[in-house]
Amino acid sequence: MTKPPVALILFSNDLDNYLPNIETERKIIEEALEHYDDSNRLKVITRTSISIDELFRLFNRYSGRIVLLHFAGHADGQGLQFNQTIANTITGKAEGIAKLIKREVENGILKFVFLNGCSTLEQVKGLKDVGVSSIIATNYPINDSEAIQFAKQFYRTWAKSDDTVTAFDEPLTTIQQAFNTAIAYLKTLYTVRITDKTRGFVFNIVEFDTKLAWELFTEKPNLTLKFDIVEPNSQKKMTKEEILKLIRTNLPKALASIDEILGDENATFNDYKREFLNKPYNFSLDEFRSRLKLFVKWEM
């Protein structure tokens, strides 16, 4: 069975500064892309209250298959807000996120990042530097209601979801066409920008001019949602010796390689994954590497 490319659609929120439209945005994007998911053209994975640990787990779990990353929630030029728990938040630094994304650009198929939070423009350079070819970011704090309207129109247009009978017929809609349509839609809806809830960390801005916040940076304006489907046997799986070497040099990639071979069927390896993800208070990286090497030598 073929493995489709993965679209990660991620959301965070803050009970102390709640964004009421986050759940609506999740549903809208899922609906816009569901015919791609149903036809095995994309595997659409959504997460609400996303944590940094869960972000890294998803990148490890679907390494080599992630083609699209959408984030919505509080943000600024220095990072994105993640949930530690449903009630507590933490800022994930832009530099670290860009390095995580770099792995998927260089060793995978990641093409597009959409940061639907406030004032994410400063993050664009870091994403360009790691090779992301298409990015949507914002120039200043954005209105929560406008954010979902923009995302709705962008994904519905790009995926041609209003006419699923002909959605996959050529010509497909390009990312530039979808972006232009979403901008036109907002300009039709709004003339004066008055904020009520914003997706940034600073909330004292009352009014903006009529220039819209979203901006598309792309080297490939003709990019469509037609991505290559990953065949499970199209890439040679790593040997035991290669995995043992990776345990020393790149532990997350080693775990991802083992996961590709064993999947979720091996209970012992599932315990290793949980331990590495949660890192209990007495966790020792050297000791973990030693135990994992023994597991690979004797169980694989």
Structural features, described:
- The protein is of the alpha/beta class and 300 residues long.
- The chain has two domains: 6-218, Rossmann fold (3-Layer(aba) Sandwich), CATH 3.40.50.1460; 240-299, no CATH class.
- The chain is built from ten helices and eleven strands.
- The chain has helices at residues 22-38, 52-61, 94-107, 124-129, 144-159, 175-189, 240-249, 251-262, 267-278, 285-299; strands at residues 6-11, 43-47, 66-72, 75-76, 79-83, 89-93, 112-116, 134-138, 193-194, 207-208, 214-218.
- The strands form three sheets. Strands 2-1-3-7-8-11 form a six-stranded mixed sheet. Strands 4-5-6 form a three-stranded antiparallel sheet. It has a two-stranded antiparallel sheet with strand order 9-10.
- α5 runs antiparallel to α6.
- The radius of gyration is 20 Å and the shape is globular.
Give the CA-CA distance, first to last residue: 23 Å
Structural class label: alpha/beta
**CATH secondary-structure class of the largest domain:** Alpha Beta
- Cα-based radius of gyration, to the nearest Å: 20 Å
Instruction: Give the low-pLDDT segments.
Output: 192-196, 201-210
The largest sheet has its strands arranged as 2-1-3-7-8-11
The level of helicity is 40-55%
Number of domains: 2
Tell me the series of helices and strands, N- to C-terminal.
Answer: EHEHEEEEHEHEHHEEEHHHH
Shape: globular
How are the SSEs placed, and which strands pair?
Layout: E1 6-11, H1 22-38, E2 43-47, H2 52-61, E3 66-72, E4 75-76, E5 79-83, E6 89-93, H3 94-107, E7 112-116, H4 124-129, E8 134-138, H5 144-159, H6 175-189, E9 193-194, E10 207-208, E11 214-218, H7 240-249, H8 251-262, H9 267-278, H10 285-299
Parallel strand pairs: 1-2, 1-3, 3-7, 7-8
Antiparallel strand pairs: 4-5, 5-6, 8-11, 9-10
Helix pairs in contact: 1-5, 5-6, 7-8, 7-10
